[in-house]
Structures are given as C-alpha cells and as structure tokens.
C-alpha cells in the first residue's frame, strides 16, 4: 500500500437608548433582549436583518442537523498560500460558482467498525452482498467480531461500492427498504444490494427524496468541515457565511504547516503542529525544512472522538481516515453544474455525470499534515479499499 503523496496530498440590537427613569430603563432592557424588538441607534426604525449564515442542531441521535445558508455559498479565490498550486487544493466552492444546499444530517463520527459489523451481519442474512467485509481500524482482522479495544475505531478497507450497499442495508434494517437511497437508475428503482455488481453500483442513482442513510455529497462534506457561521477566526467569507480557510484543518484556528507558508506572527512550526494535533490524527508534520514523524509516531487509526470537534460538533473531519463521498471525482468540481442549475444557482450538486474515481476527503492517520487541509480533494477507484479509508453517514432530515 502506497501512501497518498504530496503530488496529491500525502495523503485540507441591540436597541439602545438612555432613559432617566429606572422603571423605563428596565423596560427598555427587556425589549433589548428580544431579537424582534424595534429600535436601533438613533432611536426608532427596524434593526438590520442579520446575515443568513445557516445554523445547526445536535439531534441526540449521533447526527448533526445542518441547515445551510439559504442565500447560497458564494465561491471565492483564496487570497492566501495553499500547500500547492493545483486546483485540488481549492475545495469545491470556487470563484464564479454559487452553491445552495438543502438541509441534511451528518454523522458526528466516522462509521465505527462496531456499527459496520452489526449491519453487515444482518445484511448478509438478508440478501446483501459485499466485496469486502471491513476491518476494525487499520489493524483489525477482516470481518471479525468487534473487540473491546478497537470497536470504536473507524471501519476501513471497504470500497465505495461496499459503502453504498451497506447504506441501503442499514436503511432497510432501521427504516424499511422503501427509504433506500441507492437505486439502479432513475427509471429502474431496484435497490442496490450487491457490491460485486460493479456496473450497477457505478451507475447508481441517488434518490434524494428518500430518508435513508447515504454518503454525503462532496459539497455537503466540505460545507460541514468548514462552516463557522459568523466566526471570522481563521476563516474567509463566502457570501454571508464564514468558512475555515482552505489551508487549515477542520476545527483548527491556525493554518497547517507546509513548505512555502510564511509563519503567522507569533507562531512557530511547533505551535502550528500542536494546533493540528488538537483536532486531527495524522502522520507527519512540517518542521520548516522537511516532513518528519510526530513523537510518538502515529502508527494506526484512533478511536473516533479522540480529538476535539469542529464548529458543528463533528469529529475527525480532518485526519484518522479519508472519507468516501458520493461524487465522481473531477479536477473541475463544476464540470457538471448544468445538471444542477436552478435559477442561476448550483443546487445540491452530486459531482460529475461519470468518471473513473469517486471522491474522498479529509486526510488520514497515514497522510502528512497537507492531507488534513479542508480544501484537499482526492479521488480513488470505487473498488479500492485501503486501511486509511472509511466513510461517514449522511441522510435527509
């Protein structure tokens, strides 16, 4: 198994007034606390409408409900240094592209082997077929019963095809087969159940009207990895909403370290490393001269939730394992935008119409710091299943 290299990432109101009487002042303060109160400086009038940055909710079921900005994500060119000059460092919200996403839910963690194996066991008894049975993290035995020590590690060595079939199985087990998302085609609505049927899986139609479990689209994944609402810390503005800078990890307040980066004032390569280590499980860091191993070295996957979450409360969006997305990989993520255009806005894009690779995002324990950049994009064959590759669930609320 070869590491991802750095050719690709080795894998990125207040109404205020001064009134003399104490009673009147109290009333004024009460109305100040109400977001719908009239007021504003100068007295009278309606306060300006706050920017639509979207919002989120921890729904208590292992998922975060994400309500994206309804005004769309307005793409921009980054005005800061990236780990490389290639387009695959720039994420999917490119200048000239405006993307609008519908509400969705995303798993707080990568799918653990414990959950994978439970569904796998049920699925194989109910007509579902897999090309790979999965491992407990990077060191597990394929298809074995979960161990206490490793059951909370992400499942690995599963292909994209395995993932979409497993999503259908999990849906059938918990919601009923009628809510399965992945079908043979828009007209042939047969539920995909066989990951070894490569032609049918690769032609999969995602019926987004269904409520079942699925892979996130690449745009959904990146929005969730980068969302900061109105928080400008280490972020850039995309229309109304601030998103984490492309050269940083998900949840990080500083850039990652890489060759060509000018150290921010007051920082060292070690402080950049330490901030990345706070949020991500990864392999090597940049010491100003070369890529070097951490001490102690990272030699395997970690249990989910081992690091701090991002602004949405999602864990391991950078590092631990690369995560499959639904989309076909294209160097230009806007190459199929005509298929998703509504009123001049690219709405709920699902990537290219065809291709040879499916998207994976986020970096891994076996990637250097560059792979953790939230803008870093990678593509892998849909039959590939490495020990640094897993997935995270999405579904429609």
Task: Please characterize this protein's 3D structure.
The chain has 397 residues and is an alpha+beta fold. It has one domain (1-12, 54-397): paralog of FGE (formylglycine-generating enzyme), CATH 3.90.1580. It has helices spanning 22-32, 113-124, 160-174, 198-202, 218-226, 269-279, and strands spanning 55-58, 63-67, 73-74, 98-100, 104-107, 135-136, 155-156, 182-183, 205-206, 235-238, 241-244, 284-286, 291-293, 322-328, 341-342, 345-347, 358-361, 377-380, 389-391, 394-395. The strands form seven sheets. A four-stranded antiparallel beta sheet has the order 1-2-5-20, covered by helices on one side. The chain is globular, with a radius of gyration of 22 Å.
What gross morphology would you assign? globular
Counting structural domains, the number is 1
Ends distance: 38 Å
The helix tally amounts to: 6
Model regions low in confidence, pLDDT < 50 over at least 5 residues: 1-42
Indicate the CATH class: Alpha Beta
Quaternary status: single chain
Please name the CATH topology: paralog of FGE (formylglycine-generating enzyme)
* Nearest-integer average pLDDT: 90
**H/E series, N to C?**
HEEEEEHEEHEHEHEEHEEEEEEEEE
The number of distinct β-strands equals 20
Strand order across the largest sheet: 1-2-5-20
Helix coverage percent: 10-25%
Identify the CATH homologous superfamily: paralog of FGE (formylglycine-generating enzyme)
User: Could you describe the largest sheet, including whether it forms a barrel?
Assistant: 4 strands, antiparallel
Q: Judging by the overall fold, what is the CATH architecture?
A: Alpha-Beta Complex
Rg value: 22 Å
Strand-residue proportion: 15-25%
- Helix and strand content put the structural class at alpha+beta
């Amino acid at each position: 198994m070869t590491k991802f290299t750095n050719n690709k990432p080795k894998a990125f109101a207040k109404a205020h007034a001064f009134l003399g009487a104490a009673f009147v002042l109290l009333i004024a303060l009460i109305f100040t606390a109400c977001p719908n109160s009239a007021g504003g400086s100068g007295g009278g009038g309606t306060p300006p409408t706050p920017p639509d940055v979207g919002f989120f909710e921890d729904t208590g079921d292992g998922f975060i409900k994400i309500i994206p900005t309804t005004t769309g994500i307005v793409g921009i060119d980054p005005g800061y240094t990236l780990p490389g000059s290639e387009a695959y460092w720039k994420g999917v919200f490119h200048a000239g592209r405006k993307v609008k996403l519908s509400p969705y839910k995303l798993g707080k963690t990568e799918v653990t082997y414990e959950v994978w194996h439970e569904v796998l066991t049920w699925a194989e008894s109910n007509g579902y077929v897999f090309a790979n049975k999965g491992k407990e993290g990077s060191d597990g035995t394929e298809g074995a019963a979960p161990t206490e020590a490793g059951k909370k590690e992400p499942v690995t060595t599963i292909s994209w095809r395995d993932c979409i079939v497993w999503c259908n199985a999990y849906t059938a087990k918990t919601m009923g087969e009628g809510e399965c998302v992945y079908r043979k085609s828009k007209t042939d609505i047969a539920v995909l159940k066989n990951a070894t049927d490569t032609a049918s899986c690769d032609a999969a139609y995602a019926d987004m009207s269904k409520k079942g479990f699925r892979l996130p689209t690449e745009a959904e994944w990146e929005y969730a990895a980068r969302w900061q609402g109105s928080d400008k810390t280490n972020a850039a503005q995309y229309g109304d909403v601030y998103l984490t800078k492309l050269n940083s990890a998900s949840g990080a307040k500083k850039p990652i370290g890489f060759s060509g980066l000018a150290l921010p004032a007051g920082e060292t390569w070690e402080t950049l490393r330490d901030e990345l280590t706070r949020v991500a499980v990864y392999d090597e860091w940049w010491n100003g001269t070369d890529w070097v191993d951490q001490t102690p070295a990272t030699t395997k996957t970690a249990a989910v939730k081992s690091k701090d979450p991002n602004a949405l409360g999602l864990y391991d969006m950078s590092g631990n394992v690369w995560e499959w997305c639904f989309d076909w990989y294209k160097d230009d993520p806007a190459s199929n935008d005509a298929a998703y255009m509504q009123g001049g806005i690219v709405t709920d894009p699902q990537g290219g119409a065809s291709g040879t690779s499916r998207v994976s995002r986020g970096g891994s324990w076996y990637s250097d710091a560059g792979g953790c950049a939230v803008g870093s994009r990678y593509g892998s064959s849909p039959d590939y299943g490495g020990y640094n590759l897993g997935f995270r669930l999405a579904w429609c609320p």
